[in-house]
Structures are given as C-alpha cells and as structure tokens.
Amino acid sequence: MWQGLQSITDYKKKNSPVADPDVLLPDKLNNFFARFEDNTVPLTRPATKTCGLSFTAANVSKTFKRVNPRKAAGPDGVLRACADQLAGVFTDIFNQSLSQSAVPTCFKRTTMVPVPKKAKVTELNDYRPVALTSVIMKCFERLVKDHITSTLPDTLDPLQFAYSPNRSTDDAIAITLHTALTHLDKRNTYVRMLFIDYSSAFNAIVPSKLVIKLETLGLDPALCNWVLEFLTGRPQLVRVGNNISTPLILNTGAPQWCVLSPLLYSLLTHDCVAMHASNSIIKFADDTTVVGLITNNNETAYREEVRALGVWCQENNLTLNVNKTKEMIVDFRKQKREQPPIHIDGTVVEKLKSFKFLGLHITDKLKWSTHTDSVVKNAQKRLFNLRRLKKFALSPKTLTNFYRCTIESILSGCITTWYGNCSAHNRKALERLVRSSGANYLPSRTSTPPDVTGRPKRS
C-alpha cells in the first residue's frame, strides 16, 4: 500500500545510498569510518571456564521466526519458512561458539553502505554508515542480548531512556523539564543545560574496557570473552554502487546497526552518572544532557561535573565534539547577570536561546511557540500529499490511516510534555490545522479527526 501512496504523491527519498563514480571513495570512507581504531589495546584475555550459557532448538527456532523479511537482504524468508528444520544445526553452532568463546569470521563480516546525512555532501563526515551484517548473526545476538538483559537489574541506569521497554524520548524530556521546573520554583535559582555531542560514540568503544565493566556487573567471564571475540577481528568493507573497498580488520567499536551494540553501549556508559546531587546526567542512547541546578549563583558543582565528564570520556575513549556541544541557560529571575561560559578542552561551548532536544524545540524561556510553529509547518507540508490522495478517490480508511501516520504523528509527538503549557494562540493554530484536515481533505463520511490531544472532537 505504501509503495502505491509514494507513487501517487511523488514521494522521493531525500537521502538514498550514494552512487559516486569515484572508485577511491569506498577506501576513503572505510578508512574514515575506522579512524578510531586503536591497535594498542589488548585483544585477548586469560582463558576461563566454559561458558554456562546455551540455547535450545526451540529458542533458536522462535528467534528465526521473528525475522522480518522486509528489513534486510539475505535468506530471511528461508529462515522463517524453515525455522524448525534449521534450528537444530544452528543451535549446535551457537552453543559451540559460546563454549569456545569464538565467533566465526563470516558472522562478524560487516558491509557498510554510506548514506548522505544532508542533500549536499562536502566531506566524509557527511555520510552516515549503515552496517549490513549477517542475518544469522543478528538472530544469535538477539538470543545473547535477551540473556544479558535478564541478568541485569532494571534499575541499573535509571536515567538512560533508550533501549528499555516502556521508555521513550517523552520520558527523557519529561524528566529533564520536571527537574528544571521544580528547581526554578525556588528563590534565586537558575538552570544550565549542557547538550553533549559525541563523535561516533559506537565506533569508539574499546572492547577490552567494555568487558571489564561487564564482569563488574556480574556477567559470566566466559561470556565476556565471547563479547570480546565478537567485537574484535571484524572484517569491514564499504560498498558504494558497484565499487567495493579493500577490507579492514577492526578491533575497536561496535557496528551501530547490530542487535547487541545498543545494549553494549548502554552498559559501557552506565557509570556515567552525576557526582553531585544538584546535577543530573540524562541519557537517550548517545544523546547526553547535563542538567545543573544552580542556587545563589554558585556553579562550583556544575563546573566540576562538566570537568569530571570530560575525564570520564577520556578514560572510556569517547570524544566530545565541542563544536556541536551546546548549552542553554534557563533563568527566570528579574535581576540576572551574564553567566561565564563553559570551556571544554579549552574551547568555549556555544550558548543558545533555543535547542532541538530529542525532537522537541526547547527555548530558554520554556515557551513552546518555536516548537508549535515548527510542528504546524511540517504538518502543512504533508497536507499536500493528503490532498493528492483524495483526488485519486482512495478509500476513507486509507486516507484516515495516511493522516494518522504522517500528520497526526507529527502533531502529537512528545505532546504530553508541551501541549499543556502552550499559549492559546499556539493551540488555535494546531486546532485549525486539524480542522482543515478533516473538513477539506478527509472524506465527509469519515469521522472528524481527533484534536491534537487525541480526544474526539465534538460535532
């Protein structure tokens, strides 16, 4: 259905895999993606007892049946259709891999497909590496991930809102705003928010440092050795059109599109927590925000926190991108003074009046006009597609689904954190857009779309 809708609306993907005639580009990109490689780190560990983890054929078969055949090239359909027949063979392979703490090289091979981050590419950093890995290995990783997750406490990293069930960007934003607003209710207070940007955080993971933390968390040492083996000795190549780079063997980093990588990254950063009670470090994947609650202009704890974070990054091989790291100061006091800037590695961090935080435009006044204007503008662009679909006399159900997926989803994004504090003017703009969608573009025999809060509108 969606392919037909894309054809009718002349939908064109902005960023598609690049097809550059430069035959040297794949090698350039491969070397660039591997720029964090550190050949000085130890790649082996003392032998331990056999890993006690093993899987049954039923576990493997169930995992094979969960494979989505639309997501990646490979024998996905075969795995699903013949899951019960193949499960026994791969169960033996997986269990042998765990018992010997060895991962077959063919399972670790990664093909990187560069996708432009923006329309006009000017440098290698403008490409986002999309990793294509073995479907079999993804199933294996999913089994290992489920085991690791089951052994960890739910409260391990309460301020990491990614990669956890029933947690989302809404929660991260709500906690950030609640922390700030609660503090601002007190006398002579203000809040400094430092929005950290890391340079290719997943690619900078040092496996030997990671497995030490995994052992500290109580994971089986043999399983830790398996993780080390999984992350090291990885053949990587880059494919651009019909051109393929020379393979490189990587011993640093975790492929960002692997099943295990997000969990391993969150475990690596679980000890990145605030030193002082007046600060909070809120994380969503590698998006990290330091919230400093300042009282009586005393910023000592906040500045110590920023310095400590810099030291932690050096110890864990993560590079702070100071040029993309931004700060915002929220100060509602009538008599306020200019606050001295924050320095990271000798560079001044830029202070902003507005910042796009996890998809939400936050201003230093905590007003929502900037965000609602952006939301309305983006939603209006999609009304054109809805108008074209109506001209083709599509069914009411299809039009309503299109509205909910492409327009209502934009209007209601993180709505619990901002709609309640919108001005009357902003609410009217949102309601006008919703009414316009129902009156002009959705068929009259369908029910009027709900307002942006999700409540059905009165007739």
Question: How does this model look, in words?
Answer:
The mean pLDDT is 87. The protein is an alpha+beta fold and 459 residues long. Helix content is 42%, strand content 15%. It is globular. It folds into three domains: 199 residues, no CATH class; 127 residues, no CATH class; 74 residues. Helix 3 packs across helix 5 and helix 14 runs antiparallel to helix 16. InterPro entries: AlkB_hom8_N, DNA/RNA_pol_sf, RT_dom. GO terms for molecular function: 2-oxoglutarate-dependent dioxygenase activity; methyltransferase activity.
Keywords, please?
459 residues, alpha+beta, five-stranded mixed β-sheet, 15% strand, Reverse transcriptase domain-containing protein, RT_dom, methyltransferase activity
The share of residues in extended strands comes to 5-15%
State the low-pLDDT regions, or none.
none
Instruction: Spell out the helices and strands N to C.
Output: HHHHHHEEHHEHHEEEHEEHEEEEEEHHHH
Helix/strand class: alpha+beta
How many individual domains?
Answer: 3
Q: Distance between the terminal alpha carbons, to the nearest Å?
A: 31 Å
User: In total, how many beta strands?
Assistant: 14
Radius of gyration: 25 Å
Number of helices: 16
